[in-house]
Design brief:
CATH topology of the largest domain: TIM Barrel
Distance between the termini: 42 Å
CATH architecture of the largest domain: Alpha-Beta Barrel
Number of domains: 2
Number of helices: 22
Helix content: 25-40%
Largest sheet: 6 strands, parallel
Strand order of the largest sheet: 6-9-10-11-12-15
Bound molecules: flavin mononucleotide, iron/sulfur cluster
Strand content: 5-15%
Radius of gyration: 23 Å
Shape: globular
Length: 574
Amino acid sequence: MTQKSLTTNHPGFQEFGSSAPLTPMSLGALLDRIDHEWHSRKRIFDLPTARFWRPDPDVDLSFEFLGRRCATPIGPAAGPHSQLAENIVLSWLGGARLFELKTVQILDDLEIKRPCIDMQTIGYNIEWSQELTVPQSLTEYVKASMLLRILRQWEPLREFVGPDPGPHVFDMSVGYDLAGISDEKVASFVRGMRDATDEIEALRSELTGPWAPFADLDFDTHLADTLTLSTFHGCPPDEIEGITKHLIDVHDLDVIVKLNPTLLGFETVRQIVNDDLGYHDVDVKEAAFAEDLQFDRGIELIAELHQYAAERGRRFGIKLTNTLVVNNTKGWMPDDPMYLSGAPLHVVAMNLLDRLTPHLPDDVMVSFSAGITKDNLADSLSVGVNPTTICSDLLKPGGYGRLAPMLKALTKQIADDGCASLDQWRAEHPLTVHEYAERIRSSGDYHLSANEKLPREVDNELEMFGCVACNFCITVCPNDAFFNIPSPQDEIEGRQQYLVLPELCNECGNCMTFCPEDGDPAQVKPKLYTDPAVFAARSDQGFLIADGQVIDARADAGAIELVQQLLDSGSPLP
Ligand SMILES: Cc1cc2nc3c(=O)[nH]c(=O)nc-3n(C[C@H](O)[C@H](O)[C@H](O)COP(=O)(O)O)c2cc1C
Ligand code: SF4
Ligand code: SF4
């Protein structure tokens, strides 16, 4: 079966070229959404309370992140789940406590081609940094931090997240070269994350109405003092060294260097992916290996930077791994190369860790992100890595709702083994990385045969109203751009109607991949604009709404009437 056509029902391609800008919602608008949605449906950003994480007081899942306590060992990896404030809130509700924020870099007006995410089987993407401007990114992270502070205190949530949700950590991510990172644009971002007083004071005035009692909260002004350097592909060793030292010296940060799977060497990676795991169609890009950090220089660099940080009273860690560069043989996403993630990357990254382990300084923290799922979380932690951050798995149906079951399964395993904490359990049940890396290399779970199932498809052209109502467009969207409204009785086909907030949609393509009908939900379903300027700047179908009313539209009279009826009958929007 082929992938759904890129052009099917996708007028957005002509209109926006290769860039669909995100327009973040203000803090006040997000709070209004939370208040209205909670009181009308007991959900927050479409996540039902059954998917909220409530810690078990008898099992402590916390770990030490470069000297800081963090209540659970999981969180979103730098990527689409850590860009907008609401994404971070959704991750937190699911139990994430370590947030590797979306990578910020000086080139903040890049045109990323669309669609840019392909999670049809394993994982591929062609996106490579934040889509917001650098100042907008700072504002999003400050908003997220304030929202978490408020939600921790918010009485209605207590029953669902417990009396003490525990500490969380924001870890910055920057890329990709020393010149960009030293520039004032990125430097002021880092300073803003270290001291967000001005941003917070500017946002306080948005805490009105039911949120007014929180206006005087002592919001944490110190958002982050750790940073993961995304070296990405082709970042030379001297540059990695220069950037790390710069971040330690100039910004006084604890630094993690995120390494690429290329460190394992072309022949080994190719053998694992093509021969051992059977992904014959994956064409690992050999040229990328020559440009990247080589193994021997890599271990020298790790030892050197570890010592450099220690001498300055700072901590240093590594992260395994970023995505793997492969040639775009699928042709679905309009760029080449593309970047592989998910199941095969898990095996590559664990084998890289196995090879690195004898050479690592004893106390170096190894953070891990490569194909983490509910099924391999406990084993991954027991080889000694932490945190484990996740991207591909959260882009599959269930989305942020996949986090809490991961933590529940981990809690159960620790409790069943008679332990009271993750630390104790790891000490009593160690698994050597060699044993694990060997096991998964030959285990069927990571083989192509276990990962080639395509999303299900029905033979039906997607229409603006009515569909099989599978809910996938809601859960696979990292930005919570989709929501549904139950159909008013007999008025309209289908149990639920699905609507999209185009200002939160960057046309990543993920809902199109998983929608069983033929078409792109993000283009076909009614687009509800809330910002008149964005509505006016576009020419696609759309409905401009304010206070629950359609006040302008590019649609026929029947569609306008139906959208208004839906909004009247129980919209989660204020
Ligand atoms: C759509 C997408 C966007 C990503 N963006 C970034 C990024 O901005 N910075 C970064 O360091 N890694 C980025 N990554 C890599 C992830 O952080 C993660 O390291 C990788 O996907 C492996 O984890 P996974 O197998 O759980 O997806 C991205 C990955 C995906 C799939
Ligand atoms: S609505 Fe669809 S295309 Fe838009 S951001 Fe969400 S998943 Fe991506
Ligand atoms: S638009 Fe597609 S993905 Fe969304 S609910 Fe309908 S059938 Fe499912």
